[in-house]
Specification:
The chain has 24 helices and 11 strands. By secondary structure, it is α/β, with parallel strands linked by helices. It has 4 domains: 168 residues, Rossmann fold (3-Layer(aba) Sandwich); 61 residues, Helicase, Ruva Protein, domain 3, CATH 1.10.8; 111 residues, Up-down Bundle (Zinc Finger, Delta Prime, domain 3), CATH 1.20.272.10; 111 residues, DnaA, N-terminal domain (GMP Synthetase, Chain A, domain 3).
Length: 542
């Protein structure tokens, strides 16, 4: 018996079997039930999303002698014969029949009455491939077709269809099929075929099919043809000529860590093994997109994937944008050049240089912040403003730990995601992004300790603490005194706190004192010189 590929074997035979496109199915079924059949339809959308399948089902349903709720019965003579070259359903591939002569032949044949059904249905696939003269020849027929004729035009490139044709058709936009529905369909097919695949392999198939069910079923067909008991994710990547997710992560890590040698060695290895560098570039773009999303919001991805993305938390949105731009340029350039490896290496070094520049910028910004906070000098009056006393941080940490409550932390975190609502607000955008990079570690009735992985964010937090408190008070409708520390510092504080609790040492809440800047005038050049050498705390001149 001749082998039939899975996508043909499991092509849906009625609207119920179609995966996705619920709105389109409902509209078409209602039009059949209410006998409101249009003379021309255009189905547009990505490949493998059901355009041709629904066109065939609709062609059968309008001619079905006993249609049920606008769907095919599958039992009448027309439904049975429709699967075996029914004369009243004519499929035309515009890619190979795109001339004016073929369209003129259609114009001559539409005058003929249906052989067994109520309508003659012409399904023209890839209709955007028709020549200009062929479209012009089709126009008159589309405008005033015989009552017994229906045209269904299918295309993946709607922008190539002349407006004059579009205006004569009822238009339906097909969407990518959700991964969850693709996974369920593959599971069903495997169950019928009595084949097994690990769930992670099925999920990967759904992911890389980009919403195209036909592509997903075809890939499943190829994978089960390997006929091995232990099919892994690497088996799928090798089959499509791509690389594992870990490799893409390693490339981005090499860029972030400015490890040029490691990155170039990896690129060389990929090139020698014949991997598709264009595909790798696109995968890197997707990873950057995931990093950006994970940095501004949580619980968008699975917990396991979020944990993997955490190693990129220190890549800010501006750097991510520059990376995405360079990768987009690389993707376009790779299509034009034969020296793909050299081009990829050049862009890899460009990406590394982004982080070298970022490090320099961060250093400059940090120095500027410290300079602003500590050396605001009024040269005319010779007055030096001393820095704000940061001992308040110790006091706030003490006060938070003194009244720490796990239940309050749970409640606080539940509402913490509402800060996402302020990202699009110009007034709070920067503050909201800074806050979302933190972790609310300890919460009490009056205080909160926020943790950052990098000390740079802690410096920014301290600089903008008043604005941050305003935003938190706005979200929670309650006043909190807040403090931020880096992760390493928190580990030490936490360890001491646990030991103190074991030893019966209790932390007591202390009223926070208002910390004010003080000013003093340097009385002599000698004092200024000594202070610059030894520090203000040491120098005392009487």
């Amino acid at each position: 018996m001749q082998y039939i590929s899975l996508y043909r074997k499991y092509r849906p035979q009625n609207f119920k079997e179609v995966v996705g496109q619920e709105i389109i199915k409902k509209i078409l079924q209602n039009s059949i039930k209410n006998n409101k059949i249009n003379h021309a339809y255009i189905f547009s959308g990505p490949r493998g999303t059901g355009k041709t399948s629904i066109a065939k089902i609709f062609a059968k349903a309008v001619n079905c002698f006993d249609n049920k709720d606008g769907d095919t019965c599958g039992e009448c003579d027309f439904c049975k014969n429709a699967n075996h070259n029914e004369l009243d359903i004519i499929e035309i591939d515009a890619a190979s029949n795109n001339g004016v002569e073929e369209i003129r032949e259609i114009r001559n044949n539409v005058k003929l009455m249906p052989a067994s059904g109520k309508y003659k249905v012409y399904i023209i696939d890839e209709v955007h491939m028709l020549s200009t003269s062929a479209f012009n020849a089709l126009l008159k027929t589309l405008e005033e077709p015989p009552e017994h004729v229906i045209f269904i035009l299918a295309t993946t490139e709607i922008h190539k269809i002349p407006e004059t044709v579009l205006s004569r058709c009822q238009k339906f936009d097909f969407k990518n099929i959700p991964e969850k529905q693709i996974i369920e369909r593959i599971k069903k097919i495997l169950e019928i075929e009595q084949k097994n695949l690990p769930i992670e392999v099925i999920e990967l198939i759904a992911k890389i099919s980009n919403g195209g069910l036909r592509d997903a079923i075809n890939l499943t067909d190829q994978i089960i043809s390997i006929n091995e008991d232990n099919i892994t994710l690497d088996s799928v990547y090798n089959l499509i000529g791509s690389v594992p997710e870990e490799t893409i992560f390693n490339l981005i890590l090499a860029i972030k860590n400015k490890d040029i040698k490691k990155g170039l060695d990896l690129i060389n290895e990929l090139y020698k093994s014949g991997k598709n560098l264009t595909d790798i570039t696109e995968r890197m773009q997707l990873l950057i997109r995931d990093i950006v999303i994970n940095n501004v919001t949580r619980k968008y991805f699975t917990k396991e994937y979020e944990e993997k993305l955490e190693q990129f938390d220190d890549i800010d949105s501006e750097t991510s944008t520059h990376m995405a731009t360079l990768l987009f340029e690389l993707g376009n350039e790779l299509k034009k050049t034969s020296n793909k490896k050299i081009l990829f290496e050049i862009y890899f070094i460009k990406l590394v240089r982004l982080f070298t520049a970022e490090e320099t910028n961060k250093k400059d910004i940090k120095e500027k912040i410290i300079q602003t906070q500590t050396n605001d000098i009024n040269k005319e009056e010779n007055i030096i403003e001393e820095p704000i006393d940061i001992s308040y941080k110790k006091q706030r940490i003490n006060n938070t730990l003194a009244e720490a409550d796990k239940n309050l932390k749970v409640e606080f975190i539940k509402k913490f995601e509402e800060i996402n609502d302020y990202i699009s607000n110009k007034e709070y955008n920067v503050i909201a992004n800074l806050l979302l990079k933190s972790t609310p570690e300890v919460v009490s009735t009056r205080n909160i300790i926020f943790i950052y992985k990098n000390n740079f964010e802690v410096v920014l937090f301290d600089k903008n603490i008043e604005e941050l408190q305003k935003l938190i008070n706005k979200v929670y409708n309650k006043k909190y005194d807040i403090v931020a520390i880096n992760l390493e510092e928190w580990k030490k504080i936490k360890e001491k706190y646990i030991n103190d609790m074991k030893n019966g040492i209790k932390y007591k809440y202390e009223d926070e004192k208002q910390i004010e800047k003080t000013k003093k005038t340097k009385t002599s050049q000698i004092e200024k010189t000594l202070e610059s050498m030894f520090g203000d705390d040491i120098v005392t001149i009487k």
